[in-house]
């Protein structure tokens, strides 16, 4: 398969690695666009094709990956519109807040498009990616799923849940990182050096997540295994709940979802 990556930033380059790891492409089959000429030289040095012209970049592509910022989307779509072939080319968008209707209005109603919301854990192949599709074939969806499965886990959802997926999946990385940071700070306060406290907190969080995934259990089932009557675990949990731990996370996720839904509109 030949692929074009419109926007070779962090997400675009992570997708490039995924295309290679999924055996969908060889480096020479991938064209990457960037505005920064120095960055283009680095890309070309790795065996990829580098371009500043988005329309030229998609000419021979089977799949076009749109990886620009929301405020850059209109310009990018205007540039590729004269060159895109809606019958033969699949579009995959990772643009936050941009509904597939935006692409249909600007490129054509018949566009085959898959919308993807991964997170930055793609770099360590532990991303959670949510997909939604319009006009895409089963083969299209399977191809995109295979790609993102090389970078973690992937599920297909309805598009009306994509803003929610942005909050829980993409923004969620930051939420969980902040809770790990808070746990490590608590570790320092009870006697650990900062480095050791962070190592312990991060590995404990990783282990907790892996328990849920491996055992397919509810968090409360695993919590019950480590809480005993009048014990230190339940005392700590109850104090955190008294201070609003769960409530704060829920409110933050809801706010992020609302903002994500309007990011493209605000751009």
Automatic annotation (TrEMBL):
Positions of NADPH binding: 54
The reaction(s) this protein catalyses: L-proline + NADP(+) = (S)-1-pyrroline-5-carboxylate + NADPH + 2 H(+); L-proline + NAD(+) = (S)-1-pyrroline-5-carboxylate + NADH + 2 H(+)
Top-level taxon in the UniProt lineage: Bacteria
Enzyme Commission designation: 1.5.1.2
Domain Pyrroline-5-carboxylate reductase dimerisation residue range list: 159-259
Any one biological process term the GO annotation gives: L-proline biosynthetic process
GO cellular component: cytoplasm
Keywords, sorted A to Z: Amino-acid biosynthesis, Cytoplasm, NADP, Oxidoreductase, Proline biosynthesis
Positions of the Pyrroline-5-carboxylate reductase catalytic N-terminal domain: 4-96
Cell compartments where the protein resides: Cytoplasm
InterPro entries noted in UniProt: 6-PGluconate_DH-like_C_sf (IPR008927), NAD(P)-bd_dom_sf (IPR036291), P5C_Rdtase_cat_N (IPR028939), P5CR_dimer (IPR029036), Pyrroline-COOH_reductase (IPR000304)
Molecular-function annotations in GO: pyrroline-5-carboxylate reductase activity
Pathway assigned in UniProt: Amino-acid biosynthesis; L-proline biosynthesis; L-proline from L-glutamate 5-semialdehyde: step 1/1
HAMAP family: P5C_reductase
NCBIfam families in the record: proC
Family indicated by similarity: Belongs to the pyrroline-5-carboxylate reductase family.
Role: Catalyzes the reduction of 1-pyrroline-5-carboxylate (PCA) to L-proline.
Protein name: Pyrroline-5-carboxylate reductase
Organism annotation: Flavisolibacter ginsengisoli DSM 18119
Gene (name only): proC
């Amino acid at each position: 398969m030949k692929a074009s990556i419109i926007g070779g930033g962090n997400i675009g380059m992570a997708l490039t690695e995924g295309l290679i790891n999924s055996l969908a492409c060889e480096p020479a089959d991938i064209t990457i666009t960037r505005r920064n000429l120095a960055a283009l030289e680095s890309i070309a040095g790795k065996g990829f094709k580098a371009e500043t012209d988005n329309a030229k970049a998609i000419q021979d592509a089977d799949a076009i990956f749109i990886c620009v910022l929301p405020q850059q989307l209109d310009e990018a779509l205007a540039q590729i519109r004269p060159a895109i072939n809606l019958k033969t080319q699949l579009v995959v968008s990772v643009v936050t807040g941009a509904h597939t209707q935006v692409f249909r209005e600007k490129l054509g109603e018949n566009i085959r498009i898959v919308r993807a919301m991964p997170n930055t854990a793609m770099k360590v192949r532990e991303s959670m990616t949510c997909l939604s599709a319009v006009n895409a074939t089963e083969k299209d969806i399977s191809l995109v799923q295979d790609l993102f499965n090389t970078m973690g886990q992937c599920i297909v959802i309805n598009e009306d849940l994509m803003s929610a997926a942005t909050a829980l999946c993409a923004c969620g990385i930051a939420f969980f990182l902040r809770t790990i940071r808070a746990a490590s700070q608590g570790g320092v306060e009870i006697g650990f050096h900062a480095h050791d406290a962070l190592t312990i907190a991060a590995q404990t969080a990783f282990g907790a997540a892996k328990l849920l995934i491996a055992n397919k259990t509810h968090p409360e089932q695993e919590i019950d295994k480590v809480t005993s009557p009048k014990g230190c675990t339940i005392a700590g949990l109850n104090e955190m709940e008294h201070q609003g731990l769960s409530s704060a996370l829920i409110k933050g996720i809801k706010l992020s979802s609302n903002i994500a839904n309007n990011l493209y509109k605000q751009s």
